[in-house]
Amino acid sequence: MCRKPLHLHDPRSERAAESGFSLIEALVASVILLFIALALIPLFTRAMRDNVQGNDATQETNHGKAREELVLQLPFNNQGVVVPAGQVLGETVEAWTQGAPNVINDANEGWLQGSTAGRGLALWTRTTDVRQYGVADLDDGRLDTALPGDTQPIFVQLKEVEVRMESARNAANPLGGGRRLTFRMIKPF
């Protein structure tokens, strides 16, 4: 008995004709990818803003800590930590100016006291407050009775130094700024 070969349907030839994507499938995939990309854009802008604010906070912290370290190195009765006569608070206000951005080692860049007009863009303000106390003021566990600046030096054993940093919001720093940091330390005699 001789059998005739059956003509079977070859699935490989059918798959070859259907391989690839249709134009509609490609457009749908493109639209889905577009929506995903648009959803990610706010994440990138947020990351950029966070990086600017993080850099600003780091710079602010470094400048405040540098001021604290400088005060720690000064002698106890140095002019930089003296309270004026008749007052209980000695205050120094400085501003960090950028100077000319295209000039290296610009003389107008750095910490300046007084007016910063004509000196460049002010990026930070640093206020250093000094109060002085006698050691007997610690009897209640708190420093709450500051001594005036004209108190005889033998009665002044402690100086409280508070450094407040504030970054400016301006054209050079549009996303950062407005942040305030406070550093406080006690300088013993």
Count of strand segments? 5
Mean pLDDT: 82
Largest sheet: 5 strands, antiparallel
Number of domains: 1
Total count of helical runs of at least 4 residues = 2
> H/E order of the elements?
HHEEEEE
Q: What is the helical fraction, as a range of percent? A: 25-40%
Low-confidence stretches: none
Q: End-to-end distance, in Å?
A: 120 Å
Structure description:
This protein is an alpha+beta fold and 189 residues long. It has one domain (41-188). The protein has helices spanning 11-18, 23-73; strands spanning 90-97, 110-113, 122-133, 158-167, 180-188.
List keywords for this structure.
single chain, five-stranded antiparallel beta sheet, 189 residues, 2 helices
Set out the fold topology.
Elements: H1 11-18, H2 23-73, E1 90-97, E2 110-113, E3 122-133, E4 158-167, E5 180-188
What's the short version?
The protein has 189 residues and is α+β, with helices and mostly antiparallel strands.
